[in-house]
Amino acid sequence: MNLLVTGGCGFIGSNFIRQRLAENGPPLARLVNLDALTYAGNPANLADLAGDPRYVFAHGDIGDADLVSRLLAEHRIDAVVNFAAESHVDRSIDSPEPFIQTNVVGTLRLLNCARLHWAGLAEPNKGAFRFLHVSTDEVYGTLSASDPAFTEETPFAPNSPYAASKAASDHLVRSYQHTFHLPTLTTNCSNNYGPYHFPEKLIPLIILNALEGKPLPVYGDGQQIRDWLYVEDHAAAIWLVLQRGRVGETYNIGGLNEKPNIEIVQTICALLDRKAPRADGRPYAAQITHVADRPGHDRRYAIDCTKLQRELGWAPRESFATGIAKTVDWYLTHRSWAADITATRYARERLGTKA
User: What pLDDT does residue 344 have?
Assistant: First the structure.
């Protein structure tokens, strides 16, 4: 397989690429990573793969139709996995337009290029071609404490500019399958966490702020509930859907770990108390600071991934307890990775949380 991954220098994309080039399975002849290297795209995430003859990096935007078309043809691409997106809710509230440009216009142009490339393929390549679009549970809106979890049939009700832009891109993907018969797949995931997570998101922000003696910001009462999915479990699910998912279908991917934000923060503090105690002996929980709630903050997300489990036999390998311990360990041993982002790419940005 020749695979085009967009946004592969980001958090989830880089973990997917790393997993695909490390694990046994259907062979990859070539993996092309197209990334615009905006604020969250970090080539250091994949620097150690530079010597792998299967790996090709292309610096560019999914909205650049000429570049995308050239990559599809030159590398004889058999499948596209689209991770490329602006993905931070707080940023979308501050400035919605970049989210529309990348997530909507960019996805549209990528779909156009993929459709033309696919239409020109000969069999059996044409029948085997796939376009997998990676999306989010935030397109479904919010849940009360007693509501059933989101399924693939839940109506869209996005509540932030980010979520609205992703919902629009999901609809575009669906329309290209229905109208043009492009063989598409869509996945909607819950909150990811794990290695290489950009420091503005909740879990890495709390870890790094704790170690630096900074306040640990918690929105409102901290009772917003999310389903937490370890990123390597997510990457494995995407690969499974790409290989065996039914064309035109959506698959929800969840970690089966619903927890309120304040519990996440307290768990991280307790792990750091054991693994890297403060010099003054005080608990890290003393740094927790409640801040004004985010505008329009969704109260609860929860994913029902029964369809993925039933049809494709997937299940997460990591519990939250094992996944968060691995994540804390990774950040403790990769302080320089985070410090480089803070110093060179993020020094004047406002830290927020994805919660």
Answer: 62
Give the pairing of strands 184-189 and 191-193: unpaired
What pLDDT sits at residue 26? 63
pLDDT recorded at residue 245: 98
List per-block mean pLDDT (blocks of 10 residues) for the chain, which spans 355 residues: 96 96 79 91 90 94 97 98 85 86 96 98 97 97 95 96 95 98 98 92 95 95 96 98 98 96 98 97 97 88 97 97 98 90 57 44
List of domains in the chain: 2-194+228-255+300-318 (3.40.50.720)
Burial class (CB in 10 A: 0-12, 13-18, 19+), 56: middle
User: What predicted TM-score, i.e. pTM, was given to this entire model?
Assistant: 0.93
**SS3 at position 234:** helix
- Closest listed residue to residue 106, CA positions, set 141, 71, 72, 62: 62
Q: How far apart are the C-alpha atoms of 310 and 299, rounded to whole Å? A: 28
H or E element in which residue 233 lies: helix 231-244
| Residues noted as catalytic | 137-138, 162
CA-nearest of 59, 187, 176 to 118 is 176
Tokens of 176: 């290209």
Q: How far apart are CA 321 and CA 94, in angstroms?
A: 34
Q: What is the pLDDT of residue 23?
A: 77
- Where is 228: in which H helix or E strand? strand 225-230
- Residues facing 258 on adjacent strands: 227
Which value, to the nearest 10 degrees, does the dihedral of the CA atoms of residues 223, 229, 231, 237 take? -150
Contact predicate 195/142, CB 8 Å: no
pLDDT of 354: 42
Nearest CA to 72 out of 145, 142, 21, 129 is that of 129
- What residues contact 177, with CB distance under 8 A and at least 6 apart? 183, 184, 247, 248
Helical segments of 100-230, H only: 107-119, 125-128, 161-180, 202-211
Q: What is the DSSP string of 91-121?
A: HHHH--HHHIIIIIIIHHHHHHHHHHHHHTP
